[in-house]
Fold this protein.
Amino acid sequence: MSHHDAPGDDATPLSPTEVSRIRNDFPILDRRIGDRPLVYLDSSATGQRPISVLDAVQEFDEMRNAAVHRGAHTLAGESTELFEAARHRVAAFVGADDDEIAWTKNATEALNVVAYGFINATAGRGGEAARRFALRPGDEIVITEMEHHANLVPWQEVAAHTGATLRWIPLTDEGELDLAAARDLIGERTRVLAFTHVSNVLGTINPVAELVRLGRAAGAVVVLDACQSAPHLPLDLHALDVDFAAFSGHKMLGPTGIGALYGRREMFDALPPFITGGSMIQTVTMERTDFMPAPTRFEAGTQPVAQAVGLGAAVDYLQHIGMARIAAWEHRLGQRLARGVTEIPGVRLLGPRPGVARAGMAAVDVAGVHAHDVGQFLDDRGIAVRVGHHCAQPLHRRFGVTASTRASVYLYSTEAEVDAFLNALADVRGFFGVAR
C-alpha cells in the first residue's frame, strides 16, 4: 500500500451497529468521568482490552501459572503449551513463522535488542555469522525525522559505540517523508535503514515497499517500527521484506509488559543477544557460554507468560473482527477527524491533509493554548486524549511546536466520539480567552 492508497478499499468498514456490539466487549468503555461518559481517544498510546483478553489472563493466573520450558510437571507443561501457542498465533497474525518471533517486554526493548546486537557484533561478539552487523566509522545508519524516541535514541547509542554516522530522512511540510532526499541519503555507506510504518503523531502511512527497495539496493539491514501498524492495518512482514520489526501488545488489545521482535530467520540466528542469563543458553562453563538459536537466545530469564497468553487472545479477537474491516473503519474516522480539525479556526492539524490516507489519529496545535491545558479542558468533558511531544521531540521541532494534542481511534471508537472531540476542541480557544 502506498501512502496515498486508502486502507481498506477492498474491505467493508465496520458498521456503527457492529461497533456498538464490539463496545460491549470492553468493560472500561462503560466508565464515567465525573458525570460524563468516557470518550476514550488515546488508543495510539494504549488500547483497551476486551473481556476475552481479561479472561485469558485470569484463567492462566488462576489455573496454569508455572515457569515455562523448565518443568516436567503438569502445570509447567500447560503453561509452556499456552506460551508457545500464543507465539504461533501472534506470528501468524503478522505474517511470520513461529521461530521468527521473540517475546520482549515492549517494542522499545525489541528495538534495543536489535541496536545492541549491532554494538555487540562491532565488539567482536557472535563470531563469523555476526560480522554482517559490525559497524565502523564511515558506515551510516539512516532513520527518519518522524521517529518515536524508541527508534531514534538506540541508534544514537549505536553510532556513539561504533563510530558510525546517524543520518535521517527529512519531512515535507505535509508531514510525509521527503523521498527525493531519501534516495540521496540511502546509498553505499548505508548499513542500517530503520523507520516507522505509521507515524505516532502525524498518522502518516509510510511507503514501506519503496523504502525497503532503497534499503535492499544499498545492502542495508532494514528495521521496521510496526507499533502503530500491527494494531490497525493488515500486516504481512514476509511480504514487506523487512529484516526486523517491533510491535507492542498493549497497543493491540493486549496486556502491558509484552512486546515482540520479528527477525528474518537467517538474520535472527546471526544477531548477538543483548540480555543474557538463564534459559537462552546451550552450554555454560566457567569460561564461556554458547547461546541457543533464535528466538530463544533473546528470551533470557523468566518470561511474561500470562501477558503472552493475553496477547494471543488479543490477536484472536482482532482476527475474528477482521483487520481489513478495522482499517477501513479507522480510515473513515481518521478522515472525519482530519476534516473536522481543519474547519476549526485557530487549530492546526499536523500531518497529511484530509483526503490523503492517514491513520486514525489527529495531532493538533491550538493557537495560544498549551497542549496540556487543552488536554485538561477535554478531560473535564470526559474526553481522554494524549498531550505532550509523544516521544517525538524532533518531529515537533520540525513543525515549530513543543507539544501537541492527539486524538486517536480504534475499532471500538464511534463517529459520535469523534464529533464530541471536535465540538469540545472548537470551544477551547474561547474558554481560554484567546479566540479572535
